[in-house]
Amino acid sequence: MSTVQQREKEFELLLNRFSNFVKGQIQKFNVQKYGVDPDDVAQEVRIKLWKLVNGEKSIVNYASYIRKIVISSAIDQIRKLKRDEMIYQVERQKQISERDILYKPESLRDEALREIVGQAVESLMESRRNVVKLYLLNMSLEEITLYYGWSAHKTRNLLYRGLSDLKKVLKKTETNHEDQ
Q1: pLDDT tens-digit profile of 137-176?
Q2: CATH says 3-93 is which class?
């Protein structure tokens, strides 16, 4: 019988002899609560046993050694899962930040629009400009009237004329931006 066949036979004997012991040790750690599949740990144990059989190391007490292999395999699988979760979280955070970048041009557009409207409002004559500014800050017509102490008629005329002038200025600005 060749050495490869001898090693395979020894491996089979170890698996048969200690399979229930390995299962019991894995159950003892209750790896499912960490999200680790017990079969993954068992497979890792089999791989380590195969390496042990193919290595030059001689073992005196297999039960003790296999227990250590089960412990290290369980810990390795839990660490691997945690590491994978961390990688997943980092990738997810990266995707979220990339999405934020996609939305930033929109916020930049909003900022540019605010700038354009602000400049257009500043180009209005002072009395209309003041009324339009307060209106754009969500003050009602009555609130603006009370603020300045004017009649409702005067405030309404200044507001409507100011808004009309603002539309004209914005249309000119829009035409200038389209030409560029």
Answers
A1: 888 889 899 888 999 999 999 999 999 999 998 888 775 5
A2: mainly alpha
